[in-house]
Amino acid sequence: MPEKRVAVASKVGLHARPAALVAKAAAAQPVAVQIAKAGGNPVAAGSVLNLMTLAAGYGDEVIISAEGEGAEEAVEAVAQLVATDLDA
């Protein structure tokens, strides 16, 4: 199962607008993408509510994973968004 660790780059963390953009990108993937804070339980990345319940703030490390055909590309697409300041 491919996974990638990235730091949350948005100043507000995975909240509001950044969470909506990440959830939209995750939901558009051909496989289910999961995200977890380091040491926490994974949640479906395609849900804004799930992302907000992570309480992942600026600089927090998250682990993005997926399974199935196209998983590596899906993980990379979501990881790039999380690692981008989506508030700018």
Automatic annotation (TrEMBL):
One of its GO terms (cellular component) is cytoplasm. Coiled coil: none annotated. One of its GO terms (biological process) is phosphoenolpyruvate-dependent sugar phosphotransferase system. Keywords: Cytoplasm, Phosphotransferase system. It is found in: Cytoplasm. Signal peptide: none annotated. InterPro entries: HPr, HPr-like, HPr-like_sf, PTS_HPr_His_P_site. Residues 1-88 form the HPr domain. Pfam families: PTS-HPr. PANTHER family: PHOSPHOCARRIER PROTEIN HPR (PTHR33705), PHOSPHOCARRIER PROTEIN NPR (PTHR33705:SF2). General (non sugar-specific) component of the phosphoenolpyruvate-dependent sugar phosphotransferase system (sugar PTS). This major carbohydrate active-transport system catalyzes the phosphorylation of incoming sugar substrates concomitantly with their translocation across the cell membrane. The phosphoryl group from phosphoenolpyruvate (PEP) is transferred to the phosphoryl carrier protein HPr by enzyme I. Phospho-HPr then transfers it to the PTS EIIA domain. NCBIfam families: PTS_HPr_family (TIGR01003). This is Phosphocarrier protein HPr. It comes from Amycolatopsis tolypomycina. The lineage of its organism: Bacteria, Bacillati, Actinomycetota, Actinomycetes, Pseudonocardiales.
